[in-house]
Amino acid sequence: MFKISEFSKISQVSVKTLRYYDQLNILKPDHTDKYTGYRYYTADQMFQLNRILAYKELGFSLDQIRQMIGEQIPLEQIRGMFRLKQNEIQSSLDKEQARLTQIKERLYFIENEGENPHSHDVILKEVEPQLVLSYRRKSSLRQIPGLFQQLDAQLGNSVHSSSPQIVLWHGCDGNENDIDLEVARPLALEIRSHPPFTVKRLPEVPMMATLIHICRTTSPCTASTELALWIERNGYRIKEDEPRREFCLPHEKSSDPESHVAEVQIAVVKA
């Protein structure tokens, strides 16, 4: 048998760590002298200690290691713990890979700034549910301001100048005068509405790719195309049956009354 100091030298694990493992019931000494309190270990306990160190290297917590080593749990449950750890590490790798891709793209744009001066930052975020008053119809881009005028007339004093204009793009069959779109304003509380206006709640979206740009809602812009390209390049795909959203605020530094600072939002899932 080995004293704790001897076992520490052989295993190259500190005495402090061995004592801590003893306290946590992860690795108990084979024998503790009841008079002196000295801890003694056997050579066979090297195998158990090495397993503990191996599990730590894999990223398991000490509490998880205690369950796998010290308790008589079924083999299938141990397999399940390893599968969970595998999924956790894979998710972390995916996030780091996505971050690495963004860094490479940003570095490329920095090094080739003259070739791409209008690049935008794309952010992935979770979007919470939003209560709105909306007005949906098939229309054209140039009619959007008029749709908001009708919507704001319905809201009356409930609408604030700082409240964003929301445009939901449901689809287009190829005719620019026949775009299926929906204009909306956020609501703090439920209000009574009458057709064609609807009080509804925009659903929560767990993962939304977003891009902020300056645009005119009455004119086509490239922001959505740029965002779609980013989604494809970075291993995501657009979520079906979820309209593209655009949140618009007046661009105060512009002399153009139709100029907006807008955030394009496209719901995505991992490809």
Describe the 3D structure:
It is a single chain. The protein is of the alpha+beta class and 271 residues long. It is elongated and about 90 Å long. The strands form two sheets. Strands 4, 5, 6, 7, 8, 9, 10, 11 and 12 form a nine-stranded antiparallel sheet that branches. A three-stranded antiparallel sheet has the order 1-3-2, covered by helices on one side. It has seven helices and twelve strands. The protein has three domains: 72 residues, Multidrug-efflux Transporter Regulator, Chain: A, Domain 2, CATH 1.10.1660.10; 43 residues; 149 residues, Regulatory factor, effector binding domain (Multidrug-efflux Transporter 1 Regulator Bmrr, Chain A).
Q: What attributes does this structure have?
A:
single chain, 271 residues, alpha+beta, Multidrug-efflux Transporter Regulator, Chain: A, Domain 2, Multidrug-efflux Transporter 1 Regulator Bmrr, Chain A, nine-stranded antiparallel sheet, three-stranded antiparallel sheet, 29% strand, DNA-bd_dom_put_sf, DNA binding, Reg_factor_effector_dom_sf, DNA-binding transcription factor activity
